[in-house]
Amino acid sequence: MNKHLEHILLSDNVSVSDQSYLSDACTADPATAASVRNLVQLFDEVEKREIADRERSCESEFLEAWISEFPGVIPLETVSPAAVSPTAVSPTAVSRTTAAPTGLTLVNIRPAMRWVAAAAVIIGLGLFTYVANQPSVPAEHTVVADAGKVLVHELGGGSVVRISPGSSIGVADDGTINLVGSAFFSISPQSSSLKIVTANTTTEVIGTQFGIYESTGSTQIVMMEGTVNFWSNRLPDRSVRLGLNQASTIVGSFPPSQPAPVDILSALSWTDLIVFRSSSLEYVAGTLSARLGADIRVEDSIRGLTFTNTFRPEQGISEMLNTVALALNIDAVYDDKSGTYSLHAK
């Protein structure tokens, strides 16, 4: 990994040009992308450990302050692990015997629970106000796609999600969708915005079609139609707005890369959809032949006609070719004897 990339990853303030450089480097070189993902995982692990250490330190300081305020409570430093039992504390392990003001005994309670219990007591006495910083987690209905098979799931109101093999979504009571893995969304126009959350990103949509591809340490969104707002969960005030045929990537906790035009066919190749955007009829026939195992022949005079649409595998070859024929005002004919399809001018 070059020095410029190392500087970007270690910097607190990443410029727009640096974001683009990082995104382009990861796209161009799989080895670089893997190295970046590994570093992001390492940073996240270090951060988690630092947070845990700070929580333990705060808990200890908080309990010590409480004990000094109420001398009747069992001092934390005088209770050894061996002295704690489910029902009592050994008398030899207690330096003071006066009961706690509320009758609360800090015995056989996990450290984090002792902290919360202590806060609750002091709140009751009007001496301290504790505000939780963790949002409540709404109940979810989880849908999981089996390995090797795309799962089509209706979200209601005409919205549909195609969940990639091995991926899952959790639909919360408030409508938020938590995505683990990858999926393609077709969202009908909504009266209010819908949020789709991954491990490190949030996407806000009204009505659109797009794909979200999540890999270790990074998430990419690819727009087919409409617009969305896209941001890192840790930097919600630094969002980007994507439009037609654009993509953006978030690596770890960095801000999203600036939306950039993409070849929608290749960018969504990980889905099971068959996507055509101003594609020549020759290309359409060749793609459908390869994907569906059909023999499709195109008359020379119409090979250059262009076609735009998105097909789902479950539609079948006959329905797809009839759609092509109707859109381009041509004929689609199937020959039973040869087992071939032919597209020709009327």
How far is it from the N-terminal to the C-terminal residue, by CA?
58 Å
Order of helices and strands: HHHHEEEEEEEEEEEEEEHEHEEHEE
Radius of gyration from the alpha-carbon trace, in angstroms: 29 Å
Quick one: overall form? elongated
Q: Going across the major beta sheet, what is the strand order? A: 1-4-5-7-8-11-12
CATH architecture classification of the largest domain: Sandwich
In total, the number of strands is 19
Q: Name the CATH class of the largest domain.
A: Mainly Beta
- Classify the helix fraction into a percent range: 25-40%
- CATH domain fold name of the largest domain: Jelly Rolls
Query: Could you describe the largest sheet, including whether it forms a barrel?
Result: 7 strands, mixed
Question: How large a portion of the residues is in β-strands, by DSSP E?
Answer: 25-35%
Number of domain modules = 3
Judged by helices, strands and strand pairing, the structural class is: alpha+beta
Low-confidence stretches: 73-138
The average pLDDT value, as a whole number, equals: 75
Structure annotation, total helices:
7
